[in-house]
Amino acid sequence: MQPRQLRWETLAALRTSSKGQLSYCRHWLQDEDILEGCMSPLVLSPYSGWVLDRVIGQSAQEIAPSRSSTPKESTPRTNQSSSLEKITSASCQGSPPLSSTEPSETKGNEDLGLLEMDQEVFPAVLPSKVTEVEGCIRMYEEMHRLKGKEGLRQRQEQQEQMVRAVYDLASEQLKRFDELKELKQHQEFQDLQEVMEKSSKEAQGQQEKLKEEHRHRAKVLNLKLREAEQQRQRQEELERLRKEEGQERLRRLYSIQEEVLQLNQQIDPNYRHKDLPRIDLSAYSNRGNQICGLVSGLIRTTSERGFPTQVDVANTERALQEMRGLISSMQQEIAAAVEEKRRRDEEEERQKQKELLKKEQMTAQTPAPAQQSGGKQQKEGLQVKAEESTMQWYQQLQDAAEQCVASFSGISNCKDNNEVKKIKTDLQKAATIPVSQISRIAGSQLREIFDKINNLLSGKSVQSGGRTISVTQHPQGLDFVYYKLAEKFVNQGEEEVASHRDAAFPIAVVASGIWEIHPRVGDLFLAHLHKKCPYSVPFYPALKEGTSMEEYQRMLGYQVKDSKMEEQDHFLKRMSGMIRLYAAIIQLRWPYGNKHGTHPHGLNHGWRWLAQMLNMEPLADVTATLLFDFLEVSDVDY
Q1: Could you tell me which residues belong to the region Disordered (predicted)?
Q2: Choice between 199 and 270, residue whose per-residue pLDDT is larger
């Protein structure tokens, strides 16, 4: 019973192994495609030899007692067992896979021999079902390998046939392609010949057409040449007439200019009527000079352009009419002033007669009082405030400066009009650059600078920065130049004279000459000077209620930046420069001007300033410094 029990254990072990889990079907031999999908060859388990040895050993032990055996029989069994061990060991080592495409014939013959030997040995030794199944599997594998080898050979032959067929087809197609290409070349060559023949015919026709057009254009050009000649003759006639008209207009402009100049000579800025000493004709003189400059500029522009147009003549005629109206207004003003003076004189005469009559009546009624022995005592002590008349004069100058600023607000506040902004910049440069060029070694350049400034204020065109500039380019141009020029003179005293004291004299000479011809510049100069240096009035501003300390310091003449007041030395240096320029202007005159006229701001103003400065309460550092500078400049023999 033990061998039988061992067999069942062996079968149970095989059933639980990985091979035992496979399911077999009896129809596998009929379906050849099922086993073709197996990639790995079927091999026996490494333990199959051990199992067979045990089984054969047990069988031999069972058979030995029952049967008597001879030595000859034992020998074959031994041989059989040894052959079985060889087969089992060969199966354990593994055989080459059956799916290989190139197995050797020798190996196949050996396998066939083994199979035959198995068929001979195992039926006799182990007629069990396991051995039979194992032999069938090996036979099936060999048959499948041979069948696969035959199929591979057939496929190779089929593939070679297909390659030969494809090669033959490609050769035939290449021949057809060459034939088609040659045919296309012949057709293209023929088409090219036809196109060339057609082009030559068209070129001949085009050449004939061009010849015809050339003959036609020649006729047209001859006609145009004749018309051009006639047009040239007409243009020459028109040009001759235009020149004659232009010369006539130019003679008209010259006659208008002559008349304007004669009328302008009737306006004397230094005119003083014996009965009207206070009448001022400087405004009429300035406007007359502007009109003369405008007419001169028009004539100069038209001369550069060629001949004047009718518009130019109309503009000069309007200027002439304005000049006549200006003369008429001046005469009316003089007549009205004379009448007013006469009426005022009559009124004063009557008033004097009434006062004389009253005095006679008082003399008759009361006795003459006795003379006081001590006389009238004067009030002792220094002044703290300036005199009332001086303050009125100071306020009038400041009001005039504010009115001047308001008069050119249109040109100063213009931000959108680029043309007006450009005119403003040019006028400011023309007014300030010449003043900046005045230095202590100016010498003969002073007259050139003076003439340039005077021409600008007189309405004439001047050159500045390569551009022609005139105050007549804008209605508010003259007031703007007056204001900027006066401001520049004061700035030169504050900066240039403060650094170079000798520069006060050349600047003062030019400023005095301009002041004499254009009094408004002098008034604006004083307004700027009093505002920056109140000690030139002299005037000590008082601290009013509600005025901040920073604003009060500015009123005293100090420069305040970022709430910091400038140092005292720098402040005294600036004040000294402006007082030196003021003292130089008082005592100097333009040497090429009217020597018989009076100084526009003469020595009497210097004595007035000196007296009022001495009578006022002195300020530490300021009073002594300004008095020293004023007297030092006045003592220099320039």
Answers
A1: 62-109, 337-384
A2: 199
Contact 347, 341 (CB under 8 A): no
Is residue 96 reached through a cis peptide bond, with omega within 30 degrees of 0 on the bond before it?
Answer: no
Contact 276, 338 (CB under 8 A): yes
Contact 446, 509 (CB under 8 A): yes
Say if residues 512 and 450 touch (Cβ distance below 8 Å). no
Q: Which amino acid is at 228?
A: A
The CA distance from 260 to 254, in Å, is 10
| Cα–Cα nearest to 529, from 505, 499, 497 | 497
200: which 2 tokens? 């030559």
CA-to-CA distance for 25 and 260, rounded, in angstroms? 141
Residue 588 CB neighbour total at 10 angstroms: 21
Q: Which amino acid is at 68?
A: S
Predicted pLDDT at 7: 74
| pLDDT beyond 60 at 123 | no
Other C-beta atoms within 10 Å of 106: how many?
A: 8
Residue type, 557: G
Residue with structure tokens 């504050």? 494
Neighbours of 307 (CB within 10 A): 17
- Give the integer Cα–Cα distance in Å for 572 and 438: 23
Q: Distance between CA 290 and CA 300 in Å, rounded?
A: 15
Given phi > 0 = left and psi -120 to 50 = alpha, else beta, which region is 109? alpha
Low-confidence winner among 116-120, 258-262, 435-439 (lowest mean pLDDT): 116-120
pLDDT of residue 560: 87
Length in residues, the chain: 638
Q: What is the pTM of this model?
A: 0.44
Beta bridge partners of 462: 469
For strands 560-561 and 467-469, give the pairing: unpaired
Which two tokens mark 483? 């204001």
Confidence of residue 436 (pLDDT cuts 50, 70, 90): confident
Structure confidence by residue, pLDDT tens digits, 559-579: 888 878 888 899 999 999 999
Q: Check if the beta carbon of residue 508 is closer than 8 Å to that of residue 585.
A: yes
pLDDT on residue 369: 37
Give dist(CA 459, CA 222) in Å, integer. Answer: 57
Written as six digits, the tokens of 576 are 């000294």
Phi and psi at 48, nearest 5°, equal: -65, -35
| Token pair of 441 as six digits | 């070694």
| Residue 616 β-bridge partners | 383
CA pair distance 492, 514, nearest whole angstrom: 15
Q: What are phi and psi of 303, to 5 degrees?
A: -65, -40
Residue pair 488/436 in contact by the 8 Å Cβ criterion = yes
**Tokens representing residue 404 in the block:** 């001047």
- Tokens 């500045």: give the residue: 464
CA–CA gap between residue 322 and residue 287 (Å, rounded): 10
